[in-house]
Amino acid sequence: MFEAFRSWLGRRGARPVGNGGAVAGGTVGCQEALDRIYELLDGELDTLSHDEVEEHFRVCRRCYPHLAMERSFREAVQRALSSQGAPARVRDRVLEILSREEGG
After folding, report:
1. What residue ranges do the domains of the chain occupy?
2. pLDDT value at position 14?
3. Angstrom distance (rounded) from CA 90 to CA 51
């Protein structure tokens, strides 16, 4: 299963080239990069921190799959949110169930 995931990641973009740990000459290690993944994806890091964390994910084979998965998950959520929504019959059924639950 891991091989299939790694193959899928390879088709999705750049592959990491390092072996993990801190980037040579850099200060961001695996744990810090993983701790800051959501700040990176949300654009909440200052320029220097962003560049360091992004570089870590670019070269770290252990951490890159986490970033790729989070990006893919966010893309899937965005696609789902931008769709037309549930079919009318599904929406009506959910509303019916909710109204029954509210009524007791």
Report:
1. 2-103
2. 47
3. 45
